[in-house]
Amino acid sequence: MSTPVVELGRRAKAASQRLALASTAEKDAALLAAADLLVERAAELLAANHRDIAEAEAAGMDATPLDRLRLTDTRLAGMTSALRQVAALADPVGDVIGGWKRPNGLRIEQVRVPLGVVAVIYENRPNVTSDAAAICVKSGNAAVLRGSSTAQRTNAAIAEVVRDGLAKAGLPRDAVVLVDDPSHDAAIELMQLDDYIDCLVPRGGPELLAGIREHATVPVVIDGDGNCHVYVDASADLSRALDIVLNAKVQRPSVCNAAESLVVHADVAPEFLPRAAAALEADGVELVGDDRARQLVSAMGVATDDDFAREFLALKMSVAVVPDLDGAIAHINRYSSGHTEAIVTRDLDAARRFTQEIDSGTVVVNASTRFTDGEEFGFGAEIGISTQKLHARGPMGPRALTTYKYVVWGDGQVRR
Amino acid sequence: MSTPVVELGRRAKAASQRLALASTAEKDAALLAAADLLVERAAELLAANHRDIAEAEAAGMDATPLDRLRLTDTRLAGMTSALRQVAALADPVGDVIGGWKRPNGLRIEQVRVPLGVVAVIYENRPNVTSDAAAICVKSGNAAVLRGSSTAQRTNAAIAEVVRDGLAKAGLPRDAVVLVDDPSHDAAIELMQLDDYIDCLVPRGGPELLAGIREHATVPVVIDGDGNCHVYVDASADLSRALDIVLNAKVQRPSVCNAAESLVVHADVAPEFLPRAAAALEADGVELVGDDRARQLVSAMGVATDDDFAREFLALKMSVAVVPDLDGAIAHINRYSSGHTEAIVTRDLDAARRFTQEIDSGTVVVNASTRFTDGEEFGFGAEIGISTQKLHARGPMGPRALTTYKYVVWGDGQVRR
């Protein structure tokens, strides 16, 4: 029997009131206890995962999702390390963000506080269970987690580790709850649990996001597509540009911060593009380009408008040649999904304009797009990477799961 | 002929790109020019308002909304002053909120940037037109404004003042556009203009909010109900408490930061409640209470659960007597709309617990709830008062209309 989603929401809300007031020491103790339990119970966790894997294999799951679903000693060590890293982060709760005094003597303080209950709907990587729980606990939020049904045993075992860690630190176990009803209806119920959920972070593909758009009534922070661009400026160091483009495209093509589009300044395109195309094609990348790109690399296919707008998540890349920096900025702001865009340049003014005018959550100068990531940013882990502008943008660590309240201190002031 | 909403959105989006890069001096010059024009064109503005008023009177509008619709010299002076105050505020755009270096040498900066295009749907007070435009311009956002049809001539004249101010400062006039189609369909179109609107702030009553919940697909920050509480603690200075309760309830009962509910500690209720009831009733306030309150003030009606949850916006107040601080916090967190709650106390620990445990946007110690207001907070004006937790909470000044981007500076880093 699975627990009704509304009951899990109710429990998490109740637990969130205690967690909001928990000391940093209590929260960190819970995360460190969970890290220790993850080590202690490795065999048990791997056994639960073996059962999920066996069932998924029997059901004919493809190699790629099967690999994502699999727990290994290395992955467990990564999860343990993330729990410890998050414990070591600064606690954002209670920070005074600002404060001032009014002419009438009122003192106004803006104080950081937890959101309350954060829900995460995610697909089959089980490390999200401990990563998301860790960031929620650190920021004083209760977590309602809903992983994929194929990872249910693995996720349940990991959630139990975190819940036991909370209990060891004297915090309520229900500060982390896992939805154990694998049905689509349960997911929709979670998206509409307005009384209990303060923020929902969906992490998944287009189907999940379409479901969110159709059904969600709770506040949502979207972890959306990454149609990431690398722009090679006229002044770029071209061998550095080649390293960055190759890394951004091929080091891990299936993730959201991989590059999907290469934009090249016309002045360097004749020298750079044939070299880049040869290197990318040697790594198995299929290129599609605009007319100017195809004049320089004849083997390249035609890029449609849809290609420029697409997150391939595969060894495919669109290529555009632009007359100048303005052209690059216009092209990128037109097609980008607002995730991450990089410029390779030696020109300070070009870097300044690109970082100011590109309307994306993360803008990178002379490095790979692949660094847009909670761990690479130093957050230990991430609850997701926001591609929206409201509330939080880019990799979301503990601070992204807080809000603030104003505290006004008076001595009898009334309004005239 | 009215301009299609989508066309206004397109123009505002185009203008927003220029405004996002405008200097503080340019934006302030636009606001000061608009303030001067508001003075210069006073006769013209009052004449436009007279036509709106005449039409509204002919249509049988009640005295209260008619008063809100009316422009006067005093109100024009207030609008002018708000424009100048907003010009004098710090410009939030470009502030570096945080920054750090990673072990691989990447430097990460978190930089405050405008949201882009902010839409505001509001009811018949014309000052919102200039207040909202000012805060949007100051924070580098374009504004799409949609006032009520009854104020259309007045709003159009005010919007033209701001647009002319923008032009005088060399900024695009379309950074502020007013929807001139008064139809319900036009409002719904605005709520769904995902390609152009980065944030919508609805300011209005339950009908508008129901429309938002049903139709809005753009990101929304809710300016919602204020079911505000005043809690009189056991240790309160009772004459100060009486001043604060009276001010919070009767000084302007029709606004969102007026108090709707009085909560009294049982230890002081026998002394305080009869005094407070007499004073409130002398000011015309109808009281409804729980059993314990009614034992102390027999003339009081019975408060239903709905009364405790209701924003009366009128001379009516619910009263609860609670056994202790825990009871007060539980009662308030149950019924509050998360807007503003005040405690009157001399006890430091009670103040600390109340400010920490009350889950509202603004928590006030020893002052009236009426101070939750952009101008009273020092923002010059406000775009609204958020009752949600995501993105912004409480009175929203220019900073609430910004987001951030991460700028990552490297020298060739790629991910291994």
Can you lay out the helices and strands and say which pair or pack?
2 copies of one chain form a homodimer.
Chain A: H1 5-20, H2 24-40, H3 42-58, H4 63-69, H5 73-88, E1 96-101, E2 107-114, E3 117-122, H6 127-138, E4 142-146, H7 152-168, E5 176-178, H8 184-191, E6 199-203, H9 206-215, E7 228-232, H10 238-250, E8 259-265, H11 269-282, E9 286-289, H12 291-296, E10 301-302, H13 305-309, E11 316-322, H14 325-335, E12 340-344, H15 348-357, E13 362-367, H16 374-377, E14 385-386, E15 394-395, E16 402-413
Parallel strand pairs in A: 3-4, 3-6, 4-5, 7-8, 7-12, 8-11, 9-10, 9-11, 12-13
Antiparallel strand pairs in A: 1-2, 2-16, 14-15
Query: How would you sum up the major sheet of chain A?
Result: 7 strands, parallel
In what order do the strands lie side by side in the largest sheet of chain A? 10-9-11-8-7-12-13
What is the averaged pLDDT score of chain A? Answer: 96
The appropriate CATH architecture of the largest domain in chain A is 3-Layer(aba) Sandwich
CATH topology descriptor of the largest domain in chain A: Aldehyde Dehydrogenase, Chain A, domain 1
Terminal CA distance of chain A: 60 Å
Number of alpha- plus pi-helical segments of chain A: 16
Helix content of chain A: 40-55%
Strand content of chain A: 15-25%
